[in-house]
Structure formats: structure tokens, C-alpha cells
Amino acid sequence: MDSTLPLPVVGIDVSRATLAVCYQVNEQAKHLEVSNNKAVFQELAKACGAHCQFVM
């Protein structure tokens, strides 16, 4: 039996100017919209950590 937990999922809707991000905290969906640029995406990846699965 595999006892590993599934990775948390971070959903990202990509547009030219923004990233609409959806994720879950304590079984509650959270949503934020940020600028679509490399620096913001790197901060997002850093904040979520290596233990997330990004879905675009």
C-alpha cells in the first residue's frame, strides 16, 4: 500500500497580462490574480515550494 499523500494542486489560468491562481487552504478555495511576469512566477513557485503540482 502506498502511504504517500498526493501533492497539493495549484491551478493557474494564464493570460497575457495576468495569472489567475487558485489553491486550497484548510479545505477552502483561495483565489488571487497577479501580474504575468517571470519575477512574480518565481515568487509564486518559491512561496508554494517544491511540494506542489502546478496545473496550467
Q: What does this protein look like?
A:
- The chain has 56 residues and is of the alpha+beta class.
- The chain starts with 8 loop residues before the first strand and ends with a strand.
- The protein has one helix at residues 38-48; strands at 9-14, 18-25, 28-35, 53-55.
Topology:
Layout: E1 9-14, E2 18-25, E3 28-35, H1 38-48, E4 53-55
Parallel strand pairs: 1-4
Antiparallel strand pairs: 1-2, 2-3
Number of E strands: 4
The main β sheet shows up as: 4 strands, mixed
Shape: globular
Radius of gyration: 12 Å
Give helix % range: 10-25%
Major sheet: order of its strands?
3-2-1-4
- Provide mean pLDDT, rounded: 87
Instruction: Give the end-to-end Cα distance, rounded to a whole number of Å.
Output: 30 Å
Structural class label = alpha+beta
What order do the SSEs take from the amino end to the carboxyl end, as H and E? EEEHE
Tally of alpha and pi helices: 1
Strand content: 35-45%
The low-confidence runs, each spanning 5 or more residues with pLDDT under 50, are: none
Give a short synopsis of this structure.
With 56 residues, the chain is an alpha+beta fold. The chain has one helix spanning 38-48, and strands at residues 9-14, 18-25, 28-35, 53-55.
